[in-house]
Every structure is written in C-alpha cells, then in structure tokens.
TrEMBL record:
SMART domains: BON, CBS. Keywords: CBS domain. Residues 10-66, 73-130 form the CBS domain. Signal peptide: none annotated. Residues 127-195 form the BON domain. PANTHER family: CBS DOMAIN-CONTAINING PROTEIN CBSX3, MITOCHONDRIAL, OS02G0818000 PROTEIN. InterPro entries: BON_dom (IPR007055), CBS_dom (IPR000644), CBS_dom_sf (IPR046342), Diverse_CBS-Domain (IPR051257), Transpt-assoc_nodulatn_dom_bac (IPR014004), UCP036990_CBS_BON (IPR017080). PROSITE patterns: BON, CBS. This is CBS domain-containing protein.
Length: 213
C-alpha cells in the first residue's frame, strides 16, 4: 500500500513574504489568496517563520509597534517535509494548533504549503479507487487472500467486508489494514473465519533468553 505523501497533496509555489514586508501588505495577501497564514523567507528562499491571522490580530489588539514580517512572525516555523505521510502532517497540525504547514526541502527552502483543506482531499477519493486498493494491495498482495474469499463494498468512504477467511487473526489484520487505506472513513466488519487461532497464539509460552554464563 502506498499512502499519499505531503508532496502529493501540497500546493506548490506558495505565497510568501520577505522579512521587510509591511503589515498592510501581509493583510492584503491573506485576503487576496484567502489563506490564514503566509511563510516568511529570506533572500535565498529559506523559511524563517510564519505570519498568521492571529499574529496580525495580536499586533492590532496589543497596539505594538510591530509593522513588518520580521517582527510579526512566529519563529521558527512549524514545517513539513515533502516525504512525510499525510497522517504525520495532520498530527503535527493538531499538536501545534496550526492550519497550514510550509513544506521545505532538506536545505530549508520553501517548496509548497500544506493546508487542512489539502488533507481533506484524502477523504474525497473515489469509492472505486478505495475498493481496488483494498482488493489488490491489502487482500491479494499483502495478505495473499484469494479475491473470491472476500467481498468489498465501498460507499462514501465506508468499507464493508464480508466473506470467510482461514483464521480469526487474519480477520483482525485485514480490518486494521483496510482502516489505514487513504480515504477510508469506517470499516464495517462482517467477516467470518474457519479457525479461531487467537487462543492458541495467546497460550504460547515465550522463549526465555539463556541465562548469562
């Protein structure tokens, strides 16, 4: 299975400002491009910080003399790498409380921006694409399950699995893998199994390491 990465979802060629960009110009850019924050870069294009709507409002409320990106920005910027998974980027957004992540390369150069709206694209995958990935990648290639053994139905991102697998433990693995497929909202498990092997696995005596000599 291949999860879509930040590079797949980001908006390339991000709007950015320089350290000396004035308050009014930043506010105009946020309004013109309908964005909530803008990266601040140096002359080489390296990301130094971010100016958000919250930063502009803070300056307005506190009546501070800050009037350029250099004094308004939050630094260092919370950034993402293009090779990150979308899930990792979403977790960073949640943990840091930000709506947009500048995407930078190994040298810190700005190459794009990932927004919450971009991440929503994960849940707009066509049902047919989700179904094909589950049948071909999850069941056939990963679990070596014959396509005829399981019926996969997908409706608005909700996956329903029905059929019979050889072992109970395989049912658990199949459900977890399907839940991790991009675009899946929920998995309804109607699978049955021929053998309950979970009790046997639980009762296995662990091999103890040899005593030191």
């Amino acid at each position: 299975m291949r999860h879509r990465s930040v590079a797949d979802l980001m908006t390339p060629g991000a709007v950015a400002v320089q350290l000396g960009t004035a308050f009014g110009e930043i506010a105009r850019l946020l309004d013109e491009y309908d964005i909530s924050a803008v990266p601040v870069v140096d002359g080489a294009g390296r990301t130094l910080g971010v100016v958000s709507e919250a930063d502009l409002l803070r300056r307005h409320i506190d009546r501070t003399p800050s009037n350029t990106a250099a004094s308004l920005m939050t630094s260092p910027a919370v950034v993402a790498r293009p090779q990150w998974s979308a899930i990792r980027a979403a977790r960073v957004m949640e943990e840091k409380g930000v709506k947009r992540l500048p995407v930078v390369d190994e040298e810190g150069l700005l190459i794009g921006v990932l927004s919450r709206g971009d991440l929503v694209q994960l849940f707009l995958r066509r049902d047919r694409a989700i179904q094909e990935e589950i049948l071909e990648d999850v069941l056939t290639r990963t679990l070596n399950v014959p396509p005829s053994a399981v019926t996969v139905e997908v409706s608005d991102g909700t996956v329903t699995l029905s059929g019979t697998l050889a072992r109970r433990s395989l049912v658990v693995v199949a459900v977890r893998l399907c839940e991790s497929v991009d675009g899946v909202v929920e998995v309804i498990n109607r699978l049955t199994y021929e053998t309950d092997d979970r009790a046997a696995l639980k009762d296995r005596t662990p091999i103890e390491p040899p005593e030191p000599v």
